[in-house]
Amino acid sequence: MEKQKARKGISSFPRNFWTVIVMEFFERGSYYGVMSILSVYLVLDISQGGLGFSKESVGVIKSVITPLLYLLPILSGALADQFGYKKTLIFSFIVMSLGYLFTSFSTSYYVVFASLLLMVTGAGFFKPIISGTIARCTDESNSTLGFGIFYWTINLGAFLFPLFLIPYLKTIGWNYIFIMAAVGTGWLLFLALFVYKEPARPEVQKKLGDVLKGAVMVIKDYRFMVMIAIYSCFWILYFQMFDTVLWYLTEYMDMTPVNNVVNSFLGLFVENPNWQFAAEHVTVINAGTIILLQLIISYIVKNTKALPTMIVGIALGTIGMGILAISTYAWVFMAGITIFSIGEMTAHPKFISYVGLIAPPDKKALYLGYSFLYGVIGSGIGGVLGAYTYVKFVSEMGRPSLLWLMFSGIGVITISGLLLYNRYLVPKREIYDMNQAS
Fold first, then answer.
1. What pTM was estimated for this model as a whole?
2. Tens digits of residue pLDDT in 408-432
3. Is 359 a domain residue?
4. Is 364 exposed, middle or buried (0-12, 13-18, 19+ CB in 10 A)?
């Protein structure tokens, strides 16, 4: 009995588990470090160290590279099963680090676009290997803890890299952020070569043809796709945190009140601190809020029904976005971003539960595997829509409140759509299952 209890602890994980956890930390830290400032860097004037691209052209980049990052794991997971996890990791780190490196010294729009495509290709091949390795390194006794550490590591990287590395690297030169990411992912190649061990392959392996058949089956299920399309609307809002929110902060916000409070605190430890809230700290707030509150939120909603909890989370996100329309005061901005982050962490886990409830009983794993399509649609629309409306409402009309009210309206549409979906499109059997589950 004691051995079984010990088996559930941290010491139960093999070396391969900790190897991929280290990989995940540096890869996600590098990725979110870059994404926390990418849209600002691309539009920033050349005289200020940026590339001077138009916001509309940056919206196109973001509407291509982010959906690709969500789509690629479908294919890369099947290819990794055929060619091996180790080889796939080696390929992903080479391609990913080269993508970051090329971006660091590129100034042409199309070269930057191609370099970022290279980066997300590597990241797309990397993503399923880590979760797949963890699944093979754990069992029923420790898988919950293992994946909990995995998700916590993602947010830790997204919190620490933008908080400490990005502000310092910006003082040297914006391109050094991409060099950092190239190094941060490039050194993982050595872990893949000399430390990572190929896990035992399952008896039944996914084939590319089977993956494509599964995709066709899921896409043909109009009920499922309607639900994905509705939920995707909320993620249009989420992806503004990496685009329009950053432009708004850089061009409109005066964060002096926040800076004064933080510098007063830092003054207890160092002389004459000069900390300044900048674009990268939006990602810090999002990741930090999740690190601090996710366990508490999860405990509060663990026994609540999936759909009402999703709606509460989306409503909080909508309120957070709407708060940005109230004022340009620094603490109002901080409140809006924080409330949105709480809404995100409330809604999303219950979305996964909801997919499991409405999926056909014999195809739950398949449907859960394609539930990420919300990210494809949300980011694909969010990039171009955000850029176009920002230019229209903010740059041309000088009325940023209209931008945030529009996105809040999308949040309201999402809530209404989910209520209508649950009322008219969920079969009676699945409604019964949901009532039983709650």
1. 0.94
2. 999 999 999 999 998 888 765 455 4
3. yes
4. middle
Query: Are 369 and 227 in contact, with CB atoms under 8 Å apart?
Result: no
Distance CA 331, CA 433 (A): 44
- pLDDT at residue 2, as a whole number: 42
**Residue 200 within a domain:** no
Q: For residue 13, how many other CB atoms are within 10 A of its CB?
A: 17
Give the orientation angle of helix 373-389 with respect to helix 244-252, to 10 degrees.
30
Q: How many CB atoms lie within 10 A of CB 216?
A: 8
Domain extent for 275: 207-438
Q: How many domains does the chain have?
A: 2
Residue with tokens 């409830």: 357
Q: What is the pLDDT of residues 73-87, one digit of tens each?
A: 988 988 898 899 999
Distances (CA, A) of 223 to 67, 215, 378: 22, 15, 18
Label each residue of 60-101 as H, E or C: HHHHHHHHHHHHHHHHHHHHHHHHCHHHHHHHHHHHHHHHHH
**Tokens of residue 206, six digits:** 């996914």
Using CA atoms, how far apart are residues 297 and 308, in angstroms rounded to an integer?
A: 14
Which tens digit of pLDDT belongs to each residue from 275-334?
999 999 999 999 999 999 999 999 999 889 999 999 999 999 999 999 999 999 999 999
Q: Strand, coil or helix: what is 196? A: coil
343-353: buried (b, 16+ CB within 10 Å) or exposed (e) per residue? bbbbbbbbbeb
Residue 124: inside a domain, yes or no?
yes
Hey, what are 428's tokens? Answer: 């009676």
On whether the CB atoms of residues 20 and 28 are closer than 8 A, the answer is: no
CATH code of 167's domain: 1.20.1250.20
Name the least confident of 152-161, 206-215, 352-361, 409-418: 206-215
Q: Which residues of 81-219 form beta strands (DSSP E)?
A: none
**DSSP states of 310-374:** HHHHHHHHHHHHHHTTT---HHHHHHHHHHHHHHHHHHHHHHHHHHHHHS-GGGHHHHHHTTTHH
Task: Tell me how far the alpha carbon of residue 69 is from its chain's centroid.
Answer: 10
Amino acid at 224: F
Task: Give the length of the chain.
Answer: 438
Query: How far is 336 from 319, CA to CA, in rounded Å?
Result: 7
Between CA 95 and CA 121 the distance in angstroms is 7
CB atoms within 10 A of CB 95: 19
How open is the CA angle 410-392-174, to the nearest 5 degrees? Answer: 95
